[in-house]
Amino acid sequence: MREIYLDNSATTMVCPQAAQKALKMMTENYGNPSSLHSKGFEAQKELEAARSAAAEILNAEPSEIIFTSGGTESNNTAVFGAAEALSRRGNKIVTTAFEHSSVIEAVQRLESRGFEAVYLKPDKNGTVSREAIEEAVDKNTVLVSIMAVNNETGAMLPIEAVRRIIDRAGSPALFHVDAVQAFGKIPLRPKKLGIDLLSASSHKIHGPKGAGILYIRRGARIVPLHYGGEQEKKIRPGTEPIPLICAMGEAIKSLPDMKTELEDMKKLNAYCRSRLSEIENVHINSDESCLPYIINFSVRGIRSETMLHYLAEKGIFVSSGSACAKGKKSHVLEAMELDAALADSALRVSFSRYNTREDIDELIKELVNADNTLARSK
User: Fold this and answer.
1) Tens-place pLDDT, residues 288-332
2) Same-domain status, 314 and 241
């Protein structure tokens, strides 16, 4: 049975270049980068090469890149760190109701400590308007945290407008962007966009799990979550996982040209939408303006979990939402006020550069079979 992997927003297959780099760093260049001997120096050089690769793709300075264990830690560090650093200047946080849980739950924790939070609701296309952000941000706002691309629908948010909104409001707020689903797929220039803090993850771009980055604009100050070492500017102390970080650097270097790949994904997305529209009971939940790497759709009457397991038995792997939710109902679709029956049957297909039209054809064939044979929920 041929494996068809269409769950790339959950994680990606590690590319050969990254896997080879990790092995080399574990078996040959295994020194501690903080050691003062030559073995440590060689590891330090590799660490800084990975940092430079991450900085280059963001058009940032290497000194602005902090390595973390992944998107969740980067988001937590940004949200808690920014709020605590500016707590004397205000106590309001503006975010959306459909952020990743690592942002929403961090903000909820800050609410329990006395911060005020505004959770912007999405419109029918799954995004928020500039006007809604403008209405929420005021002089008391210390943090605006808005994702670049939603992980369940692919909705793209107007992050290019946020810095101007903050400045016009006379707000001291730091601007954080969860770019986990956007990094390596669309151009991101934090300086140009006025972003202070940006999160990204290795395993979404064909690197290994366990590594991520937090961009911190030069001059921006946050309070660290962890203490006990000099590594990563004391923002993320502890011996760096060099094999994972260097493999992430290699995955970044191995990314194809973003503009070319985006055009390829648009064609693949359009083909998938066209084929899905052939199935009478399918409803596409992702607007056409969404990032083409992701399509969220529902097969009316068939529960997500039922369809997911049916497809998995056929060697086709999709998702019923965010992998971090572990099967819980989607807060994203709930925030969009999607019809309950559609939300209950929603699936997410997410592409990578390794997917083909043949993968989609096989998906459609099995969706049709499932639509004709599986028992429908009442």
Assistant:
1) 999 999 999 999 999 999 999 999 999 999 998 654 545 567 888
2) no
Dihedral of alpha carbons 184, 186, 189, 195, sign: negative
29: domain CATH number? 3.40.640.10
Q: Which residues are tagged catalytic?
A: 324
Whole-model pTM: value is 0.95
The strand ranges marked E within 58-201 are: 65-68, 92-96, 116-120, 141-145, 174-178, 197-201
> CA 127, CA 149: separation in Å to the nearest integer?
9
124-150: pLDDT as tens digits = 889 999 999 999 999 999 999 999 999
Residue located via tokens 């330090």: 44
Looking at residue 364, its amino acid is I
Chosen domain end from 229, 253, 277: 253
- Supply the DSSP string of 182-199, one letter for each residue: TTTTS---HHHHT-SEEE
What's the order of all strands across the beta sheet hosting 197-201? 65-68, 212-216, 197-201, 174-178, 141-145, 92-96, 116-120
